[in-house]
Amino acid sequence: MxxxxxxxxxxxxxxxxVPGPQYIEPPVSVYEQSAWSQWDVYHxxxxxxxxxxxxxxxxxxxGRSVGSPSADGAMFISPDKEVTFYVYSPLWTFDAEISxxxxxxxxETVVADSRSYDVCDVTHYWIIDANDGSYSRSYVDVIQRxxxxxxxxxxxxxxxxxxGVRYTDQDAYDRYYDQYMKFKNSLIQxxx
Length: 192
Fold this sequence. Notes:
Elements: H1 3-10, H2 30-36, E1 39-43, E2 47-52, E3 56-62, E4 71-77, E5 83-88, E6 108-118, E7 121-130, E8 136-145, E9 158-167, H3 170-185, E10 188-189
């Protein structure tokens, strides 16, 4: 700023302003703006979860929770249909098979399946590939039973959540990985 302008704004005794180092925000691509800044919240029966607003939400698993016709799960389909995110978060855990992610033996094969145990928690990972190679589906099912320190696990009190992602190929999975992690980490589960 010139000194006459400074004198006009702030008076005759104003010291000149010397510019210092400034942080300049790097330009953000249109892809980054649409991918990261625009998220919506999906309200399930007993959960809320954030998802990219460009994805199409589809409710699933109706009527599995006690006392409500709302959905215990949902799928979120990307605009290019290269990935679908999945969440299942019921009020209570059900042992019955969840039909919308069940294996279709005529057209799919389980290629990985493992479980891990930690005190009262059980985590089940599995990957399903289409026999024709057109997609893969990866899931993690987490059952967390409550306990107090050295006390045994409370068999009747636990939470379950299943996350999944269906992807057309590894490139699609890699491209959407950060969004999928943000999706998973946004889950809020409610109790009665």
